[in-house]
Amino acid sequence: MDSFAQLSDLINQHKTNSNSAIIFDDKEISFNDLYASAYALAREIKNSLGLEHQIIGIFIPGSIDYCISYLAITLSGNIIFPFSINQKKDEFRRTISYLPITCIITNQRYVDTLRKKHELSNLSIIDVSGYVYQSASLINFTSEIVSALENVALILQTSGSYYAPKSVMLTHKNLISCASSIINSLGINASDKSLIVLPMQYGSANTSQFLTHLYVGGCIFFSSRIFSPQSLFFNLNKYGITNFTCVPTVAYHLLNQKQLLNDNSLDSLRYICYGGAPSNQESIGQLISNYPHIQFIHMYGQTEASTRVSHYFEPLKKRKAGCVGKPIPGVHLRIVDGNGNTAGAFQRGEIVVTGENVMKGYFLRPEETRMILKDSELYTGDIGYLDSSGNLFITGRKKNIIIKGGENIYPEEIEDVLLSHQDILEAQVVGEEDDLWGEIPIAYLVVKTESETECFIREIQTFCMQRLSNHKVPQALIFVNEFQKTNNGKIIRGAQYDNAGKRTYKNNY
Questions:
Q1: For residues 73 and 446, what is the distance between their CA atoms, to the nearest angstrom?
Q2: Residue among 383, 213, 204 at smallest CA distance from 299
Q3: For 158-174, what is each residue's pLDDT tens digit?
Q4: Half-sphere exposure of 430 (CA within 13 A, CB side)
Q5: How far apart are the first and last CA of the chain?
C-alpha cells in the first residue's frame, strides 16, 4: 500500500477518479469532483481569509458538505476541528474560549444557527460554497501554541471537566498510520461501501470509516434520516452497503427485526464493527446465527490512539466473552501491573499501547499528557489481560467514561454543571446499564434539605438542558444524605447507595 505523508495526499491521489466518493441521501459526488470542490474552498480559505496553520472548525453534520470542508481545511494547510451541531450555547462558547479557533465552515442550512445562537463576532465564518459571511482578524499564536500544533491534522474533544475540556491532537502520521492498519486488518478495498451513522466528531467515524474508504477509493454513505431499522434496511437495499459501525445495543435492536427484511436485504453486507460498550454474548451469538455470512467484529480503541487498537473477529462458535482480539497491524500492547512491570499471560493490569497511531498529546495540557504518555507508550486507563495466544480481554476501566448509544459522556462535565446550581451541595454521575442505549447517565445528589421536590426535579432537568447537550442530561436523580469518601475527603466513585429516594423523568435524547 502506498505511504502518504499528509491527509491531503489521500484526496490528491483521486484527482482523476470518476467513481462515486460520497453519497448523501439522493445526492452524489465523484472523487474528482470532491477534489475540485475541496480545492476551490481551500483556495478561498487561503486567499480570501489568509489562513494557514490555523484551527478551523466544521459546523456541519456528516454529509457531502462536511467532507468537502474537511478536505479543504487539510488542503489549505490548516487543522480540522469538527463541532457537534447539537451543542448548547454554553458548550459551544466554552470550546471556542479554550481552543484558538480562527474560522468556522458551515453551510446555508446551519449558518443562521451559528451566527445568531452562538453570537460569533470574533470569528471568520465561511460557507462551504466559498462565500465569506464575515471575516475577523487572524489569531496570533504564541510560540507555545505554534509548537503544540506542529504537524497536527485534527483535534477531537475528549474527557475533561465542563470548564476545562481535554482536546486530543492527532498528527497526519497518526491518522494515516491508523487508517492504513485498519484497511489491512479488515481488507477494505475500492469496492467497499460504508454507511456512517456515528457522529463525525468521534474518532471511529472519522478514521475507521471516512479516512479508510477515502484512502482506498471506496464509497461513503451518509443519511439525514433518523437512524432506525427502516432507514438502515432502506440504505442497505438501495446502495449495496458492505459495512457499518455501531455500538452493540444498536446492532441488537436493528438486526433482530428480521420482519422488516426482504430475502436479499443483507446480501451485500460484508462486516459490522461494534464497540464502545460491553457486548452481550447471548445477543451476539443470536446475530451470528441469524446472519452467518456477515463478519461481526468487536473493536477496541480510544481517541488518543486515533480510534483503533484491536479487532476481534467473532467466530461462529466458541466465542470468548470479553475478548477484543489482537492488535491491528503496526500497533503493539502490553499489560502493566501495579508495580509498573509487564504482566504475564492472564495477569490483569493496565493496557498500554504503542504505535504510530498514538496521539501527539492533549492541547496545552502537558501535565495530563505526561500522565498517560510515557516513553511514547499510551497508558489507556483500561484494565485487562492477554491470554496465551495474545488475545486482549477487557475487564474494567480506570476512566469514568459513560457511553450512551455511541456518544462519549464524561461524568466530570455533568458534575460541574450540577454543582453550579445553588441548591446542590455534592454530585456524582455514574453510568447505568440500559437495554436501548447501552448506558445512561444517572446523578446522585446531596442537596439542601428543602430541595427534594418534584418541582426541583424539573428545575434541575431544565438547568442541565440549558447547559449540556441533550444526551448528557441525567436520566435520573437520586438523593442521598452523604457520599462515601476516602480519608482525604474525595468521593468514592461507584460506591453503592440506597436508591429509595430515586426520582426519574423520561429523557428521549
A1: 47
A2: 204
A3: 865 555 678 999 999 99
A4: 14
A5: 42
The b-or-e profile of 250-282 (16+ CB within 10 A means b, else e) is bbbebbeeeeebeeeebeebbbbbbbbbbbeee
Give the model's confidence band at 202: pLDDT under 50 very low, under 70 low, under 90 confident, else very high: confident
Alpha-carbon Rg of the chain, whole angstroms?
23
Of the candidates 335, 350, 344, the one whose C-alpha atom is nearest the C-alpha of residue 398 is 350
Which distant-in-sequence residues (6+ apart) come within 8 Å of 122 by Cβ?
Answer: 136
Q: Which long-range contacts (CB under 8 A, 24 or more apart) does 5-9 make?
A: 5/172, 5/173, 5/176, 6/74, 6/153, 6/172, 7/71, 7/74, 7/153, 7/154, 7/172, 7/175, 7/176, 7/211, 8/71, 8/74, 8/75, 9/176
Q: How many CB atoms lie within 10 A of CB 406?
A: 25
- pLDDT tens-place string over residues 320-366: 878 999 999 999 999 999 888 999 999 989 999 999 999 999 999 99
pLDDT value for 318: 80
Domains in the chain with CATH codes: 26-150 (3.40.50.980), 173-397 (3.40.50.12780), 402-504 (3.30.300.30)
Q: Which residues contact 434 (CB under 8 A, 6 or more apart)?
A: 249, 404, 440
Measuring CA to CA, how many Å separate 381 from each of 108, 330, 350, 399? 42, 21, 6, 6
Instruction: Write out pLDDT tens, residues 37-74.
Output: 999 999 999 988 888 899 999 999 999 999 999 999 99
Characterize the bridge pairing of strands 402-404 and 407-409. Answer: antiparallel
Instruction: Indicate the residue type of 64.
Output: I
Residues facing 20 on adjacent strands: 30
Write down how long the chain is. Answer: 509
Beta strands 20-24 and 402-404, pairing class: unpaired
Separation of alpha carbons 361 and 283, rounded Å? 37
Place of cell 489568509: 50
Of 399, 187, 194, the closest CA to residue 304 belongs to 399
Are 294 and 267 in contact by the 8 Å Cβ rule? The answer is: no
Mean pLDDT, all residues of the chain: 86
pLDDT tens digits, 406-437: 777 878 788 878 988 888 888 889 888 887 78
Bridge partners of 244, per DSSP, are: 195, 272
Residue 509: pLDDT over 50: no
User: Per DSSP, what are the bridge partners of residue 201?
Assistant: none
pTM: 0.84
